[in-house]
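G., before I forget:
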Amino acid sequence: MAQAASVKSVATRISTQADSKFQDAVAGWVFMAPAFLVIFVFLVLPMLAAVFFSLTNWNGIRPLFTGDGSFNAEAFEMVGLENYQRLLIEDGSRQQAFFTALKNTVYFVMGVVPVQTILALGLAVIVNQRWLKGKGFFRTAFYFPSISSSVVISLIFMFLFASNGIINQGIKAIFPSYENVTWLNDATGIIHALLGALGITRNTVGGWATTEVAGIPLWNWLSGPSVTMLMIMILNTWTTIGTMMVIFLSALQNIPGQVYEAATVDGASAGQTFRKITVPLLRPTTFFIITLGLIGTFQVFDQIYVISSGGPADTTLTIAYLVFRSGFDDQRMGLATATAIVLFIIIFIFTLIQRRITGGDKAI
Amino acid sequence: MGAVTFDQVGERSPFQKILGRVLPVVGYVVLIIAALTQIVPFVLTVANSFKCLPAVNAAPAAFLPLPPFGVACKTPEGETLSADATSSGLAFNPAVEGYQQVFQQNLGLWLVNSAIFSVVVMLLRLVLDSLAGYALARIKFPGSRLLFIGMLGTMMIPAIVLLIPRFIILRQLGMVNNYSGIIIPLMVDAFGIFLMKQFFETIPSDIEEAAQVDGANRFVMFFRVILPMATPALTALAIFSFQGMWNNFLDILIVVGGNQNLWNLPLGLSFLRGQSGEALVWNEFLAGSVVTTLPMAILFFMFQRYFVEGSTYSGLAGQ
């Protein structure tokens, strides 16, 4: 009797356990369902579609489906790796456009990311000092620009850097001999300009300068960002250092005070403390900030769209802008998605390299 | 021990003493210059948005508003006043010409659209992100780990890669050039789910157990017990979403660029700039910029703590 009862109660227990397990499974999936659907349809599916369309020559106009809902076989052809070939290998206008955009984008990234990271860290270290009064004020002031829209910031910078604008007027007030720079429309590369000031020009450096690599003469590869691009780089740095400073600051505040006290007891100088304690402890944050910077700068688009549309002379044409231009202006969806995927791979590689350099792989 | 510490700190060389005096001064100078470069552009934006156009071009640096306020930029005969008539040195007479013009350009409609996109997306994300975040944090169900890893993976896809295929899918679904095309793809975001998951993991599980004993089912418990406890995380998520949508440009451009009635403020402003060609109507553009930034600025000063926390959270997400 007693045995039977206990067997029965075990059975019920098992069944209620199975029951609650089943209920949990249902509840879990019901809770997840809307999020899962949206992420699948608008993130995962597009990613797969990007890979697929990069292998086609679809122009984005011919309908993918016919009137009765069946697939329209004439919408596009599978062209294999042709789009990638035209971007990367085959001589021609597509290759030239891609490598121009790559050159501009890399100058942009290499200029902005180190500068914004170092400035943000420097400001955070100062704001974190014990003697500093008005921490709240400085944090607010630095953070404020990042709440504003990229379009608004672009308009403000166009206003400040206009040929008769405040920046030019200000420089002229300090250096009367200054000749106005047309910041918004100057294709001169700044490395070219600096070399030119030293008397080094395309004609004086020798024949190698005219050798073309990927449709672009070597001399032009070394142009540096154009003056207009430089202005957009300043804009980008200016907007992002606030947020990055705040992230650095909260990481600094998480370092226990005892660590510094111990270092002081051991007679470490301020410089030593910074190098041997602050920098290593900030490693994960630095890795994160640089990753954020790389992903953001490699995709720079809004500012280019508003300020320069890729000009002057394609010197602000970035890869992201090229994706937009080939897709929506040239109606080449296949080529545009291939460009985007190459960009994805480039960002991925850069992130891996910087993980090695900053030691992000060890820190996490 | 403590005495030793103080002694050692006390033994500073004269050089260190001077350094201790000089460093704070240098620090303040650097911070003040940096803060000025961040603030001055906004001050000049507001000042110039209230100038007559000739005064913007001739005296962009004038920032002191002097009476008479609300001057007319044209004579009764319709002639434009010269820059000297409304500005001198660093002072100017405020006018509302820029605001009048930009509101004639449909700014009101863009403002309404910005508000609709931001509020609707924010509310949907609050519900859907926290539902998903809760499931991932607290419910054991098959596939949950895989879902979580997959979701983290999607956070690494650059937006520009999704640009064209998302447009293609939206067009196939008939969602281009209407509200649904903006709202539905953005009503869930992986970062928000991650943020809510992290938060729910900090809630002690006895609270749920107590509620379960009372016979509450998961849904009732979630909305009655768990969600009200999540107010800090929800506030940070709300602000993060609102800000992202208010300033969204690329999605709006791609999805509703062809339908003027659905433009938001950033897209409208970029259109004004594009339309103007070489003749840039600065007081009008800057007035539009002020109208676009003002709601965010008000929110920022009301909820500053949560803005900063949102960024800090995103910093944690990276770790």
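The beta strands of chain A are 212-213, 216-217. The mean pLDDT of chain A is 89.

More on Monday.
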